[in-house]
User: What shape does this take?
Amino acid sequence: MQFTTEEELKARLDAGKLLETPDQMSEDYMMGLKRILTVSADTELLSAPAYYHAATKAPSINAFVSAMAIIQDELGHANIAYRLLEDLGFDKEDLIYERQPAEFKYPYAFDVPLDTWVELICANALYDRAGYVLLGDIYKHTTFAPWKRALVKVDREENFHLRHGETWIRKICESEAGRREVQRAIDWMFPMVMEWFGLPDDKKRHTEQLSYGIKGSSNDTLRQVWLSSGVPFCESAGLKLPVHWVPASSSERGESRGHYELDYPFPCEFDPAEKRWLMAEGEISWSQVLNRWKARGPKNEEYIEKIQRGHKELRKMMGVALMESYTDESTK
Assistant: This one.
């Protein structure tokens, strides 16, 4: 593959031009783009089995149909990202069907099962809000033109998903028992979302996504964007989140109104079997978090197997049919 030089790439970006094809990219730009597109594609893909597991607990046919529509959207979003990777020269079939479960790159949250309808609608309100924030930032700022165009549709659909979750949460929280059930789900899912945005800015190793304008905002900034809408919504529904607002000091007021701070050790250890954060044990290192992410969670292998099963069975049947055809021909 022929890449452009860093100098030529910088000149193009400085002129405000977007990139359309691989030959307009440097090798580092391409690798940064591949990383973020792979995470996006894998995240959308793995949301499907995760959401379906809980959608079967829907309280009505209409609710189930709404959940399935969201799953269909997510698979469409995954296809968009995988197709973009294919246009960049990567094999879509290999990415989806040939990788091992631990090789997929997506938030740890989708390795923890959503076991109830309440957990599913909380995922719509929390997890899809994270997707809306992340992809919305890329939609507004990315220098990769094909992705910017594709995200017009994705942005609107992710907004629908989070509104679906909000509507159901408000409805369920009308009763005290319902509010308590939602709170239990929020208690373990909210810290998942805070991890979703990745390493703190001062610990990031790959900076090319920002320096090349593949995305526009840093991890910590995007965390704050999520909090700026997620916290007010949860509070309006009578739900509590372990955060507090810190107003800007007098010297900062021209740049910011303030920011949210977490009221628990971040990061901390998680017990997936109990769906419980071990906050009382204090803060752990980000290297420990990375080890957990790399090891994947309890549903990783099961969900990947479901995604890959049909393709592998079809390939096996086609191989058998081809062998039988060859045998028939050789005996004539």
